[in-house]
Amino acid sequence: MRILVTGAAGFLGACITEQGVKAGHSVVAIARSKLPYFLNDLKNLEFQKCDLVNTIPNGQDYDLIVHCAASIPSREPNPDLLFDYNVKMGKSVVSCARNCSSTTIINMSSMSAFGPINEEEVNEKTPTNPQDAYGKSKLLVEGFIRDWCSETGGVGVSMRLPGMVGGRSHANFMSNLAEQLIRKEPVVVTNPDGFFNNIVYGYDLAQFVIDRVKNIPSGYKTLTIASDNALLVREAAERVATAAGASPDLINYKLSKTKPFMIRFDEIRALGYQPASVESSIDRFVNDKNALLR
């Protein structure tokens, strides 16, 4: 396959770029800045410096476009700009797909597209009502992909991602928790007796995207994804502490009005996704972070 990956300098985009090249595909990696060092020596990798907010990628023929680029609240505090950037990037990707006759777009969306979640379990049919600019922009871009599918008969998927983790992951609960515990800092964890599977190791998702994309039928779909064999929040936090070489006594627990929820992944599993356990996801990503931060 010839694959275009946007946001290839970011955590997830880099995982997918690396997985695609190592699987023998030709990958074009797009980013606003240089790629991470571990991608520099890969063969069959072409880098294009491109700001999707202002530019449509070069109109080559791609079998697969994976859209990972995004503006996130921790890096763009202005909600109006964040919304505008994400919408413009989504439009650029769809324009590229039209120009190059791409057959498949996989769009990395977010659980934020659901908005506040009050159910005990979340799946693809859970109603959406995003309240913030990030969630609203993600849901709108999903609509762009859906419209493209209707127009072209192509394959379009929006994956509403949970906490994605790995050595370079950031700006989510598990990533922040691991970094603080590696530094031996005290942390606060809420709702310790709720169940938790809101985590996916980055390379597990990358492997699904690269190896199983051929299993996805024509048309548009949203998919939810998570890890298997849920733990209690308390158990998950203490496993992070153990993997980080920190004392569980650094963890302070408290209750929160925000209810914990579980994520279903039946539909993506039917397409070939093989979920790792929560324990395995924690152990691998904290090991990666240890290697980077120590």
Explain what the structure shows.
Helix content is 37%, strand content 21%. It has eight helices and 15 strands. The protein has helices at residues 11-22, 79-100, 133-152, 173-182, 202-212, 233-244, 266-270, 278-293; strands at 2-6, 26-31, 45-49, 64-67, 104-110, 121-122, 155-161, 163-165, 187-190, 195-196, 199-201, 219-224, 231-232, 251-254, 262-263. The chain is globular. The mean pLDDT is 96.
Q: Report the average pLDDT across residues.
A: 96
Order of helices and strands: EHEEEHEEHEEHEEEHEEHEEHH
Order the strands across the largest sheet as they lie in space.
3-2-1-4-5-7-12
Termini Cα gap: 37 Å
Question: What's the story with the biggest beta sheet?
Answer: 7 strands, parallel
In CATH's first tier, which class of the largest domain applies? Alpha Beta
Number of E strands: 15
- Strand portion, in percent? 15-25%
Rg for CA atoms: 19 Å
CATH topology of the largest domain: Rossmann fold
State the helical fraction: 25-40%
Which spans of ≥5 residues are poorly predicted at pLDDT below 50?
none
Q: Helix segment count?
A: 8
| CATH structural architecture of the largest domain | 3-Layer(aba) Sandwich
CATH superfamily of the largest domain: NAD(P)-binding Rossmann-like Domain
Rough outline: globular
Task: Offer a concise description of the structure.
With 294 residues, the chain is α/β, with parallel strands linked by helices.
